[in-house]
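B., you asked whether I could sanity-check this one before it goes into the benchmark set. Here's the sequence:
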Amino acid sequence: MASLNGGVVGVDNLPVASASARVSTFNSSGTFTALPTSSSVQYLVIAGGGGGSGYGNAGGGAGGYRSAVPDEASGGGASAEPLSSVSGGSSYPVVVGGGGVGGVTPGAAPNPGTPGGGQTGSDSTFNGITSDGGGGSGTSTLIISGTRNGGSGGGTSFQTPEPGPQGGQGVGAGASGQGFPGGLGGFTAPPYLPQPAGGSAFQNRLAGAGGGAGAAGTSSPAQPIPNSLPNAGLAGGAGVASSITGSPVTRAGGGGGGSGFVPAPNFPNPGVSRPGAAGAGGAGGGGPSAAYEDGVGTSGTANTGGGGGGGSTIPGSAGGYGTGGAGGSGVVIIKESAVAGSASGVWNMDAVYEYVLEGTWGG
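And here's what the prediction gave me:
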């Protein structure tokens, strides 16, 4: 409103309080309360990663990655999303998704009846923004519980197509604007490669790696794969870096795929299985396995949304029961911008006179 104040007539602009930038990190579910001066916020919403396979060796997909940080990327090659509108002083629920459980080799001691495929991670949400849990990983002989699709897709086992009503015709898909698909597995065809130590022959199996927010999981190069290919596991897809907290941090990488051996008929002594590399960004790696030993996949790092690594298995061997790593839990990070304070738009003549005498009047 117009004001008459010591001989100066003008619009009376109320002073605005200043506020520093604030970053709120939620490693578990909670409530975000906006600063009184906030009207919009940047965010990074990452879901829980998918678990790796115990039997089937596939890597879990990274949790969905959605970003509203200017000049940074969201998952799946997408650009940053618009800022999220908030009301100053209002509260908003935040849900942080957990990682999916890793699978174990089913159907025989010590794990009868246990799902072999990794489970899908849980969603993370904030203010109407939902990131999808990472896709669970495939298994070779049993139907996985859920699906390989997710924020980033889980890898498939070495046997494709996988049986059962889940479909199994290819890799787990990544959600649009959140992540990339998982990788496709494969296996060698006869004649089988002899062991380096001689004597037995074996079939080499490579499982697909989990997709990451920044790249797809690695696939086997051919179907069936050539005997000349080393039996190293396949690398998970890379994550995406963000500087929302200050320094750049890469999150939401896919889980590495493990490898496995099956002895040819009448050859009881299998070879050595090797792990796949973790995708950059808090993902697990595939689990190495020596003859007659478990191959345990590495779990995704907590609060990164990384996928779990696939276990490495030697079916039929005593103790050759692989275990997949669990997916890493998600995270929600919210950034509010700094607000510069301002004074009233009206000064009285006495104040102006004093400022002019001091030489501090700006004109």
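One thing to flag: Residues 17-341 form one domain. Otherwise nothing jumped out at me.
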